[in-house]
Amino acid sequence: MHIDKNILRIVRIKKTREETPSVKTLIFDDYLSHNAKPGQFLMVWIPQKEEIPLSVMISNSQGEAAITIRKKGLASTSLFNLVEGETIGIRGPYGNSFSTDPGFKHRLLIGGGTGLVPLVRLLNHTKNSDIFSTIIVGARSKSELFFIDLISHIMQDRQFELLIATDDGSIGFKGYPTELLDNIVEKDPKIDMVYTCGPELMMKGVYEIISKKTIQLEASVERYMKCGIGICSSCSINDKLVCVDGTVFNKGQISKLSEFGRFYRNKSGILDSY
Amino acid sequence: MVFDIPTKFAGIELNNPIIVASGILGLSQSIFKRLEKIGVGAIVSKSISIKPRDGYRNPTIVALGNNNWLNAVGLANPGAEAFAKEIANNSVPLFVSLVGSNVSEYIQIVEKIKNHNILGFELNLSCPHVEKMGMEIGDDPKLVSDIIRSIKTKTSKPLFVKVGIGKTDVIHIAKTAENSGADGVTAINTIRAMKIDITNRCPILENKIGGLSGIALKSIGVRCVYELYKSIKIPIIGCGGIQNYEDVIEYVMAGATAVQVGSMIGTYGINSIQRLAKDLKVYLEAKKYDSLRELIGVAHR
Ligand SMILES: Cc1cc2nc3c(=O)[nH]c(=O)nc-3n(C[C@H](O)[C@H](O)[C@H](O)COP(=O)(O)O)c2cc1C
User: Do A8 and B77 touch (CB under 8 A)?
Assistant: First the structure.
């Protein structure tokens, strides 16, 4: 049977997992989302509250999917407060995805906060590849760090190094994850691919470091969205629509996006600066 | 890519009759350029009000299946000032859609944009889900007449009036528009509709009621264009539910000179407009028509 992914599917929260005091993962059954590619997102409706785009998180069992949110605004706080048995509506998955070309030798993944979600999905998706992976995780402080055990678990039989950067230095490197990145790419000539997801300003920093190198880059961009189907322009960056042309853009594309990391459209459509 | 199906009306010349409807990719000059490259005949901007509007909270769009959609975006738009800046160096064939609640607001918007390089204006008299704007204006023939007359004193640019299914008969409003000096009519806008989630026992749209677009609208749109063609002499732009070139031909045979497409882009993506223009061109060639004009209104015998 053909399923129209645009039609809202009502799903029941099966389990919730607290990642930090302000970050939660909600797990539900949904076949389409289970099979989502790394970088794809769902439009998630919290009945009588709001609808927001969220990257698809991995889950263990067949047919299961998940989302991970940090409580902030109305939608994310409402999601955070949901308990097992309550329902949400989802549509999608939408958007393109990270390339999983096995041709790379040494890849580096750099992300922060819930931006780790598509990166974790990418790691999980490419379990059988023997690429060496360097993973840089950024957080404000030790207490806000999450997915560390999960990443170690996914990577257990593979070659990888996991580096942590915190703003306050409470664990790992003290400073921005992009500073770590800068040090590493200067020293390690083997890195040929960088994947990133997180705050756009961080990704802009990543782009600036990588743009001077011959390393390839893919960034999964998170933008405010209304429609998710490429008609409202809310998520536009120059002539690209994040919801249908992205969420993943490569280095060549980003080099032409003068608005990337600088301007976004607010709810009314006015081009505002970050 | 240009699909040459020369289309002339109201003193305007377009490469082809496929126009992107208001509210669809209607905010960004960079995206207008992309649409032009894809081969659209023209673009109608998002409806612009005097002040910026954030619109309603999400969900603002709901899929109903079978290429039907429900939306209540709430006329989110950057406002006249910011939009005038956005299109300051406009180079694409663009109509600016206007929305407001009284004569003075419309005049102020037109004043800010009338000297820009645009084809003309489209008056949105038919948004079905925002109070005191759109449809509520369009249901009042006296107000419609006043707005059109005042805009026409400020600009000589063509003015199209977009009508819909409201409380006042669409033909009556279109005739009023023609008599007040409008250069053409766009028919139709979305129709008030609703979707309820039975699990949570609530409407899905934040605004509860929205406008229906897509396939379900087509036969109503075609009927409106057909009836309007009999009643008015100014050109008609057909809109509602168009998915393929057959639908375009149907609107043209009912009496449309050009057409607008919206929801199709949501279902099939931005490049579907290119396919539509190309298929239309191929059809006209195969049937050996010299121009689309030969088919306008042929269903009236
Ligand atoms: C998301 C969305 C936003 C719209 N916004 C506007 C608008 O601002 N002004 C307007 O006149 N029509 C607006 N419309 C109506 C369309 O221009 C068009 O009349 C309608 O969608 C029917 O055409 P379709 O079936 O091809 O979509 C909007 C439609 C959609 C789906």
Answer: no
